[in-house]
Specification:
Blueprint: E1 3-6, E2 13-16, E3 19-25, E4 36-42, E5 47-51, E6 57-64, E7 67-71, E8 74-78, E9 82-86, E10 91-95, E11 100-107, E12 125-128, E13 135-137, E14 143-148, H1 150-153, E15 159-165, E16 174-177, E17 180-187, E18 189-194, E19 197-202, E20 205-209, E21 215-219, E22 225-232, E23 237-240, E24 248-251, E25 268-269
Antiparallel strand pairs: 1-20, 2-3, 3-4, 4-11, 5-10, 6-9, 6-11, 7-8, 7-10, 9-12, 13-14, 13-24, 14-15, 15-22, 16-23, 17-20, 17-22, 18-19, 18-21, 24-25
């Protein structure tokens, strides 16, 4: 069965002045996990130091508030539509003038997941997911926004996306070979299935699926369900329990606000068992 909990049920620890951390996923909690996931809460006026080890990579996703990122490229103002990917040896800091919360994930010794990681390390990248191309499922009402892929971020170690389920929307059952992944539920709720067993999910829930664990999702009757999900590593095989309903994603030609997206993505089908690496 997957790991499933709500962040409100995780104990918080003070790690610096005005900074609190919740350990969500780690090797102490989950067998064979290849990354660590924390939730960081910052009080107004506080600072959080970022220091990525030479063989690691990291990323953070802002959940609430605004942050100022200081790093080698100067300062950048970030909001809750931003996801930031940090390359090895990155040194910087996050500060806020108001209360803010973000998810922080670290992949230690990423060369184990990507043999080219040392020779071709990924670069720093900031994504505003509301500017990214919006794709729609060909078989149902789901929507997808890619946050990081091997082609975009330059490493096979991770892959991430935002997924939107309108009310009363379901995805077909499937599983992944060669990668575990987690979902962080940002809005709404519904039912997650693991090996056919239902789990009620809502805002603030974390679900971690192990490699080869069958799963599916269904949103509730009233509100849309939105979650971000990240795979470690980012290249894997997907198997559909019913191959005839394997996902096909069609570009809408717009971002989620209906404007021009930051780039173009072609239609692609997951009937091909390997995760696409060109999106």
């Amino acid at each position: 069965m997957p790991i499933h909990f709500n962040v409100d049920d995780v104990m918080s620890e003070r790690i610096a002045n005005g900074v609190r951390r919740k350990r969500l996923l780690s090797s102490e909690k989950v067998r064979d996990i290849k990354f660590q996931l924390d939730r960081i809460d910052l009080d107004a006026g506080s600072t959080f130091d970022l220091n990525v080890a030479p063989r690691d990579l990291a990323w953070f996703q802002i959940l609430s508030g605004e942050l100022i990122l200081s790093g080698p490229r100067g300062q950048q103002r970030l909001s809750q539509t931003h996801v930031v990917f940090l390359p090895p040896s990155f040194i910087g800091a996050l500060e806020t003038k108001e209360n803010a919360t973000f998810l922080l994930a670290v992949v230690p010794d990423a060369v184990q997941l990507d043999p080219e990681f040392v020779a071709k390390p990924p670069a720093f990248r900031t994504v505003d997911w509301k500017d990214e191309p919006l794709l729609e499922s060909k078989h149902d009402a789901r929507k997808r926004i890619y946050l990081v892929t091997p082609a975009l971020f330059g490493t096979k170690a991770i892959k991430g996306e935002m997924i939107i389920y309108p009310p009363q929307t379901a995805a077909p059952e499937h599983y992944h070979i060669g990668s575990a992944h987690f979902m962080y539920f940002l809005k709404g709720g519904g039912t997650a299935f693991a090996n056919g067993q239902p789990l009620s999910v809502k805002n603030g829930d974390v679900v971690y699926y192990f490699d080869q664990e069958r799963h599916a999702l269904r949103s509730g009757d009233q509100d849309e369900m939105i979650f971000s999900e990240f795979f470690v590593p980012g290249v894997f095989k997907t198997v559909w329990v019913r191959p005839e309903v394997a996902c096909t994603w069609v570009p809408t030609g717009t971002n989620i606000a209906g404007g021009k997206p930051s780039r173009e993505i072609k239609e692609h089908s997951f009937a091909n068992p390997l995760a696409p690496t060109d999106v």
